[in-house]
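Rotation project, supervised by the postdoc (A.L.). Task for the rotation student: set up a whole-complex structure prediction and record inputs and outputs verbatim in this book. Inputs entered:
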Amino acid sequence: MLIRPTRRALLGGAALLATPGVLRAQTPEIFVGGPASPGLTDILFPRIERKHGFKILFEGTNSLINLEKIRSNRARPTMTVTMMDDPVLILGEREGLLEPLRGKAIPNLADVQAEAKPRDSMWANWCFPAASISYQTQNVKPAPTSYAEVWDRKYREKVILISMRITQAVVPLLAAAHLATGKPLAECLRVADEGFSKLRELRPNILQITTNPPQAQQLHESGEVDLFLSPDSRTTLFRKSQRAPVDLAFPKEGTVAMPAGVALVKGGPNQALGEKFINELLDPETQALVAGTFFSKPTNTKAVAPAGLNLPDLVVLDWEYFADNRNRWIERFEREISAR
Amino acid sequence: MSATALAAPATPAPARRLDPLALLALPGLAFLGVVFLLPLLLLLWSSIRGAEGFSLQGYVRVLGDPYYVGVIGASLQLGLVTTLGALLLGYPAAFALARAKGGWQVLLFALVFLPLTVSIIVKSFGWGIVLRRDGILNWAMLNLGLIERPVRMIFTEGALYAGMINVFLPFMVLPIYSVVRMMDPRLPDAAATLGASPWFRFTRVTLPLSLPGVVAGVSLVFSLAVAAYVTPSLLMGDRYMTMSMVMAKAFLNLRDWQLGAAMAAVLLAVAAFVVVGASVLQRRLGGR
Amino acid sequence: MTGMAALQQAGHLTVAGASKRFGAALVLDDLSLAVAKGEFVSLLGPSGCGKTTLLRCIAGLLRPDAGHISVAGRDITTLPAHRRNVGVVFQNYALFPHLTVAENIAFGLRAQGVSKSESAPRVAEALALVRMTEHAGKPVTALSGGQQQRVAVARALVVRPSLLLLDEPFSALDRKLRETMQVELKHLLREVGITAIFVTHDQEEALVVSDRIAVMNAGRIEQLADPATLYGRPASLYVLDFVGQSTRLAGQVTEAAGGMLAVQTALGPVRAPGQFAPGSRVVVAVRPEAVVLGEAAENRIAARVREVSFLGSRTQLHLDLPEEGEDRGVVELPRLPEGIGPGSAVTLAFREADTMVFPAP
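Outputs recorded:
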């Protein structure tokens, strides 16, 4: 492909422009790429900077663009640490862009639950946001206790699904596969294709399939939409804390852990600082702060979740399988569920 | 140099010689060449490159798949409805704008063009407030007794069309306005004194004279609307896939460059057909 | 209403008590006018006097706030323009730029549903009438100003209007062409036998083309008369000034007896026919060509020449008058006598019968 080198060069140039500080650092600095979500640069990073005496240069973009940057700077990496979703990290691993995490340099890794260090600790999950059903608390009483309720005709044109192009869309797909096959939610990813016919039955209830979750969230909070599948707890519980009339349901079939990974870029500058950064993210105390800030479940078994945040045990998925099948599901979802 | 310039009108230069003024287009052409033509050629190139070299698989997938043919049809339908709606609303508006005086004209201009300055994201939230079940429109219709219970309007095709017309209306009004503004307002008067009824005056004088503006507006709005991405994705989401949404999906999610490039090439062909057709039509109209 | 009936009988076109207001401005002020069949009447006045408004009211492009308009005995006041059968030649002609010469001329016939077979010979006839046959297929944008005017006239005439209105029809033409076209158009319209109303601000043009001239001022007709009367017996100082030039002097009536007045001016006593009480402040005026140098007439005044203008067939002397204001002096002589130039002292003589007296403004 001819177009790719051009794009790489452009993105590489942009990355260089964005990181002049790295080249003439006085106090040690590392360049971290990650999602542009609130809580990182205003709460989490200042704490790490103060504690360890280095500076964090952060660039917030979505995971795929982040990956593109690492890929284009493969020869001379500028980024030390990358924070991305697991399905994208898998692509990075396959292209040999990541450095495995070593327990020696990152002692807290030992206390992290096994499911949160995929691929022999190629990366670590620094928290588990939870996703199930977000419900409008004024319209939906009591809270849904099963995914089957979403199919109830009383929710006609009252449900919004997230587009399959967005990772959280895996939740309704899993729920449909569970209802179709009766298998436990944790096993449903591998039979997800069997859930499509069940998902088709949901169509009369679907008001919209959104690629713009903030817009859907607004309609959800206004009462136009009763059920929203599935913004994760970072959105739903955060908005709940802001007194928006929404809450996260905990269906009996289970609640799904969304991916939030952190990895070392292979050959990135200041690897030692990068490891320090990751170790701090996985520290039990920091994990408690992370859990409270991001309304997520800690992954360090020694971390104590803040009071009031009672998330159940989460179903952790095989994101590699997801990554390998996502394109097919996007196509099927579009043609069978979205199409008019 | 000034002597040649002065002599030029008296002795028309042979057609083959380049007018020095044409050189003024060079910076613009160079700019377009770098930022538009080059990427365009690269795009066309990647539309015929599969995993194993040259392949027309991208076009086969786009034009041979009933789903994608449907998407193309939906985009064309969206473009047509938007264009027609914008024309019906924009044509009289352009006349009002051209004939209004002083403060009224300023006000009408503001009404037509201020919406352009509002971000589409903000607009989409605004539409949500207007269209939802407890929104302003339902409230008004309930209170007027037009409906008995709230009607679903949000994320419907009707709402999509209304929103698209709202977004693209200025692009219809402006070209028609600029033609109508130059039109002698006494021409319909002259026709009236010759015994022409209002309808005859409109169809034989006003309409033909404003047609160049209509052609420009129609081709502008149609090519914008058929390529629309943000507005349909905000107003309908995945339930109304357009060519641009398929392209975004192919490039951003599926990372399937050939599919995206082939769809882009089809869109480009549609738009080019409309624009070239319009300029041919315009030249023919202008020749009269 | 009896006045209206009388007017209707009097004229082919009658306007009775027409008023039109644009915001605060009264543009037509209770204006009445009667025009006989086949007559050419000019509406003459400065811009803003209401002449174009009156024309648009007659054409049906404006509706008067009050009053009535009728043509050939039919009240057309509320009739829309396209049902009036009143032809208009617009200023700058308003030809349809998207149509050819022949299509422009045929427009009215098509609009009125005249069949192709009937309209073709009529268009050909109209083209021939204005000598535009060879240009029939040209776009009107390719025509000269004079040709455009001929097309505009043919376009208006081909539908056989009961009345033709012409709004400053010569203003787009250069001076030389204008003079030719004035005579040509007058001749053409006379041949067709149509009733025509010209709107113009050019008094010379009005004098050339009209049977009668209505001098308009502030929405009213100041005087409606044939050109000779208008020139020779203007009804007011306004008309005197608007039509032709004059020598005029402010003065005071010292004696009035037997229809003759003695007026004392700054340049001496002048006698003239008129009805004013002694002591009245007046303006006496005489047309330039009624003045001779020397002592060959009853009234004589001494003046000094300020400037001499040679006009070809005649020579104008502009006089230095001692008083400013209402006074001005223009004398026209067939030829300039020897020794007269700027600064020369001259004696002006004019007949009592040629001397006009107006109340001072």
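Student's summary: The mean pLDDT of chain C is 88.
Supervisor addendum: The longest helix of chain C spans residues 175-192.
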